[in-house]
Design goal:
The chain is built from 15 helices and 15 strands. By secondary structure, the chain is α/β, with parallel strands linked by helices. The structure holds one RNA strand.
Length: 463
RNA sequence: GGCGGCGUGGCCGAGUGGUUAGGCAGGGGCCUGCAAAGCCCCGUACUCCGGUUCGAAUCCGGACGCCGCCUCCA
């Protein structure tokens, strides 16, 4: 049984499935108007891990995550860059997937694009106008939140108190500052789609409710995203669905944000680091390990220091992979080692790690248990229990693999010169010519290698 | 103002009332020709003030500090 904190209920509860054995899961994807930043990296990693874990548990997961390819931000960016909205969306969607591939986030099963669902959106909006839940103003169509009984469910407070805190609204045609745009009429030169109530473009909240219901159907299992989407975005998605008497997501989960110093990283604060930049100078696996080492609902600091810390921890795992000659498991692919054979000892490890992960995706405890198993494996091998060490190492590899973290035994290819030096050093050591052996080691170090000796000879690796 | 969260050893970061979190860094040792890697040992921490309890980092009350949402935001 998988348990997960539910933002609507405010407690950890069982993830109940509409169809036993199958998980339908939706994550709001990016608006493609800029490079993805570390916050995008965090939420995609968190839910990639969840998806992988569900899959490892034998569940058939259908994961849908959209691309918002029409939005005010895209229009503004196109104006700024003196190009078209289509060009901006295409450019940054490409950047998005490139970053996702680098960071090892598996592609969703479906990636609906908002512009491909406009017909469904206008149909929905028309029905809102008909029922009176939606209303026209001079600049678009708005949704009357007072028409939804339990509006504020996700925000955790009633409509009145939300309204009390709302900031002064520029648009005085809205009945309430909490009402949101379903549709925005196009200004001259802006991209627009035809609609009986006036040509224009859909509002963000309408895009996601339409796409999630279209692909996953009413009452799908799990809707996820970053905490900052909980209100108003997710609240508004839900409001639209329930105002039509439709079942929406049965379970809501939100992931914590990335902090910069003591502030949340966000587009509006302008304090973001692009994921693309990070991945250029860092092993992407370090970011995944950093994310895994904290709980998904807690804020994390991503700084050069915390990344370096994760990189050194990763080194310990790669050293294990090298010592036991572990095969690198599939990175971006969602493959699960279903044919893994557990021994009594590794079975217990799997049980322990699994219990942590089943309980609100407690990756920090799971990772701690795996690091303990690394020590156990090394100790076993040190004592000459090679088979036992190997079994443990294989299990650690399989379980990290289930979380999408690849252990690498050789991440760097040895060039001819280095290979020659290694061979010469083996010869020097064999003949106990220590001076020559040390000289050759110095040469290898100068070439950027870390030299390690063992009974079977010299091995080299990058630091 | 409303709602929610956080405050743990040098750093990062878990924590279900009592028994080792884990990682990184640091110190000592084993191993090694010397190293590296690995292994063993070492820190006795929980913002503050009360309270409950045989016993609290963990529960209750209060104080202080910090953060987030209520506006676009993962």
């Amino acid at each position: 049984m998988i348990r997960l904190f539910d933002s609507a209920r405010g407690e950890i509860c069982e993830l109940r499935l509409r169809d036993p054995g199958r998980v339908s899961m939706y994550a709001c994807g990016p608006t493609v108007y800029d490079l993805p930043h570390l916050g995008h990296g965090r939420y995609t990693l968190v839910w990639d891990v969840a998806r992988r874990w569900f899959t490892f548990r034998g569940l058939d997961v259908r994961f849908v995550s959209n691309i918002t390819d029409i939005d005010d931000n895209i229009i503004n960016r196109a104006l700024r860059d003196d190009t078209t909205e289509t060009d901006i969306a295409r450019t940054y969607e490409h950047q998005w997937w490139a970053a996702m591939d680098l960071i090892g986030v598996a592609r969703p099963d479906d990636t609906p694009h908002a512009t491909k669902f406009v017909a469904e959106m206008t149909e929905l909006i028309a029905s809102f106008l008909e029922s009176g839940v939606g209303y026209l103003t001079s600049d678009g169509v708005y949704f009357d939140v007072s028409r939804v009984k339990d509006y504020g469910l996700l925000a955790g407070q009633p409509l009145e108190s939300l309204r009390a805190g709302a900031r002064v609204e520029a648009n005085d045609e809205k009945r309430s500052p909490l009402d949101f745009a379903l549709w925005k009429f196009a200004k001259p030169g802006e991209p627009s789609w035809p609609a009986p109530f006036g040509d224009g473009r859909p509002g963000w909240h309408t895009e996601c409710v339409v796409m999630s219901l279209a692909l996953l159907g009413d009452g799908f299992d799990l809707h996820v995203g970053g905490f900052d989407l909980k209100f108003p975005h997710h609240e508004n998605e839900r409001a639209q669905a329930v105002s039509q008497g439709r079942d929406f997501a049965q379970h809501w989960s939100h992931s914590g944000w990335v902090m910069v110093g003591s502030e949340k990283m966000s587009k509006s604060l302008g304090n973001f680091t692009s994921l693309t930049d990070l991945l250029e100078k860092t092993d992407a696996r370090a970011y995944r390990l950093l994310v895994l080492r904290s709980h998904y609902r807690s804020p994390i600091e991503v700084t050069p220091a915390t990344i370096a810390d994760a990189e050194r921890a990763l080194l310990r795992l790669d050293t294990l992979a090298r010592r036991f000659d572990l095969a690198a498991l599939a990175g971006n692919a969602l493959e699960v080692a279903t044919d893994f054979t557990w021994t009594e000892e590794t079975g217990k490890l799997c049980e322990k790690v699994g219990a942590y992960l089943d309980n609100d995706l407690d990756t920090p405890l799971a990772v701690a248990a795996l690091f303990e198993a690394v020590s156990t494996a090394n100790t076993a091998a040190d004592k000459g229990e090679d088979a036992r060490g190997k079994e443990l190492a294989l299990a650690v590899n399989a379980l990290f693999g289930a979380l999408g973290l690849q252990l690498l035994s050789s991440s760097h290819h040895m060039d001819d010169l280095s290979a020659t030096l290694v061979a010469e050093r083996d010869e020097a050591r064999f003949t106990k010519n220590w001076a020559e052996a040390d000289r050759l080691r110095d040469e290898l170090v100068k070439l950027g290698w870390v030299v390690e000796d063992s009974a079977s000879g010299t091995t080299i690796r990058k630091p």
